[in-house]
Amino acid sequence: MIAPAPAFAACSISGSGYEITAQNSTVNLDTDCTGASTNAATVTGDVDGVGNSGINDAPGGAGNWSVTINNGVTVSGSDGMLFESAGASVDNSGTVASTDAEGIQITASGGVVTNRASGAINARKDGVEFDGASGTVNNYGDITSADDNGVTMRDGGTVTNFATGTISGDFDGVHIRGGTGIVTNSGQITGDSDESGVQLDMGGTVTNNAGGTITGDAEGINIDGAPGEVINSGTITGATNFGVIMRDGGSVTNHAGGLIKGDNGLAGVSIRGGTGTIDNAGILRGNDDEGVELTAGGTIINRAGGLIEGEADEAIQISGGAGSVTNAGRIESINGGPTVLFDGFDDRFEIQPGSSVTNATTFPNAVNPGIVQAAGGTDTLAFGGTGTQTFDISTVDGNNTDNGEQYLNFETFVKEDASIFNFTGTNTEIGAFAVNGGLLNVNGNMGSTAFSVNGGTLGGSGTVGGTAITGGTVAPGNSIGTLTVNGAL
Length: 489
Description:
Elements: E1 10-11, E2 15-16, E3 26-29, E4 42-44, E5 53-56, E6 66-69, E7 74-77, E8 79-83, E9 89-92, E10 95-98, E11 104-106, E12 112-115, E13 120-123, E14 128-130, E15 135-139, E16 142-145, E17 151-153, E18 157-161, E19 166-169, E20 174-176, E21 181-185, E22 188-191, E23 198-200, E24 204-208, E25 213-216, E26 221-223, E27 228-232, E28 235-238, E29 244-246, E30 250-254, E31 259-262, E32 269-271, E33 276-280, E34 283-286, E35 292-294, E36 298-302, E37 307-310, E38 316-318, E39 323-327, E40 330-333, E41 340-341, E42 348-351, E43 356-359, E44 372-373, E45 380-383, E46 388-392, E47 407-408, E48 412-415, E49 420-424, E50 432-435, E51 439-442, E52 445-446, E53 450-453, E54 457-460, E55 463-465, E56 467-469, E57 473-476, E58 484-486
Parallel strand pairs: 1-3, 2-4, 3-6, 4-7, 5-8, 6-9, 7-10, 8-11, 9-12, 10-13, 11-14, 12-15, 13-16, 14-17, 15-18, 16-19, 17-20, 18-21, 19-22, 20-23, 21-24, 22-25, 23-26, 24-27, 25-28, 26-29, 27-30, 28-31, 29-32, 30-33, 31-34, 32-35, 33-36, 34-37, 35-38, 36-39, 37-40, 38-41, 39-42, 40-43, ...
């Protein structure tokens, strides 16, 4: 037993069976404080009795331990390090190892563990465990658990894994319970044994930066208990499950260069139990299922350059509430079904310039699923955004009869925003169409459609039905041409 002074200067503690009992002290384990810089220090705990940790403070004291472990130092024991008083701080550049339990365990409130680039925390159970109120882990090195989680926090907390850092668990890579979790990753976080890369049990935010990877043997990220938020510029993978699943609603922002993918018949992103919001400029992929599923309604924006892909099912499925999809990128279903499928609510699909929606399978009209399929309710097909695009209006079902069209079961049609759309083809099913912004050139035949021009411009050299102008403009022709109106103007 060593009973230290209130503070240690740089020194070495070597041998076995030591227990450090003081509180409000600083321990600095250095490689050269004994005068022999070639001799690394070692603290080895006794696996019998109270002194079963490499470093173990006494419970119930004033706490606020600060321990620095320099490069070359090894601290090992049944617990590598065990702190039972509040506010412990560990700065590790050496090696902390446990033979039977946690690498570093802080049982009281708070605390900070910083694992430097040369640092390694290797544990039989949790690599780092906080049992009290919110703790903080900053990792630049390696945190590994052989039989449990890489990092466990039982009352919320914050984990930052830098570009050089790896956190891996035989179960979850990071598991935060009992309070809000915040995880920021630029390195590698991995979960195994049919568990998650990151698991948040009471909601929170996961930010995966460019170059960062989060991989779960099951889900890449699993958030429940409260709404979650995922912001991704790296790669998130569910090897046998969802890439990201949120069980109480939430939002996913996938930036350009970001990839989120699920596998084994499960979606790239699944948001359940509450409204979901998706903002995508990267890739969302379900290798054997939907790219995105929202089971309580929600909003999806697929920006220019974005890809949402379902390889064996819809690319997007929204059920359980009203859904809105705005597309300026690519939405693709590889093997079957409609590419976008809505439920029986008041849903909306907006086509913007750059939009591409495809299904690789050709169906006979009798079983045509369309590429975008609405259901009950009053559903809106909108044309918005900025830029210019040509669109074949004959691909739109305007009276809820399936005649082989690609956009099925919509009742309301509108042109808005500053974009320019050039309609080609013939459509005799759409009864009414509102022009509220930008320019719509009808260069085909929509002679059965009544147009209301409320702001923006109706032009082209085709045929339209009766037209009412309220604050908008009719400008016939492309260059010199004629727009034919079948009805009153």
